[in-house]
Design goal:
The protein is globular. The chain starts with 8 loop residues before the first strand and ends with a helix. Helices cover 22% and strands 42% of the residues. By secondary structure, the protein is α+β, with helices and mostly antiparallel strands. The protein has a seven-stranded antiparallel beta sheet with strand order 1-7-6-5-4-3-2. Helix 1 packs across helix 2.
Length: 158
């Protein structure tokens, strides 16, 4: 009997942000800007490597605050991600390949993360689509994290 391939989940979130697509795009490709808004509530971050061009790679370490109660994917309180920019379309879209640095197979595999910027009458509709989400990431936690990151992006750019 042939095994069915494991179906991985797709998580998505969106928000209208009162800023131009250009301003939002710049918040993604500037190293200092990115790390100031990317970590969800309860986390802080550090950019270890960053090459924002198609095919360029990055490495980001997110650290859970001590009273958070979550355990990290890489260590007790950290999530380290290795990423690669698959597509950079200025002011329109960013597509990334993301891998978590984890020994736990529940967090293994490549997750594709797409950020789409669409003109809206009030500003820019920003949508994040995460494909092939590792099964170790609980949907409820991911939804909260994506929403928090979008809120941070809005505060940073508005």
């Amino acid at each position: 009997m042939k095994e069915e391939p494991m179906k991985r989940r797709v998580d998505t979130a969106s928000r209208v942000i009162m800023a131009s697509p250009q301003t939002i795009y710049q918040a993604f490709i500037n190293r200092e800007a990115l790390i100031s808004w990317l970590p969800p509530k309860g986390m802080s971050g550090h950019v270890d490597a960053f090459d924002p061009r198609q095919g360029g790679t990055y490495r980001i370490t997110l650290t859970y605050e001590m009273d958070n109660g979550h355990s990290g994917k890489t260590s007790d309180n950290t999530d380290v991600t290795q990423g690669r920019f698959l597509e950079l379309v200025p002011n329109k879209r960013i597509v990334q390949s993301i891998n978590f640095d984890s020994k736990d197979p529940l967090f293994s595999g490549e997750m594709i993360q797409k950020w789409v910027f669409e003109d809206a009458s009030e500003g820019t509709k920003v949508t994040v689509i995460c494909e092939n989400v590792p099964e170790g990431i609980r949907k409820e936690d991911h939804d909260i994290g994506l929403k928090s990151t979008l809120e941070n992006l809005a505060v940073f750019t508005e």
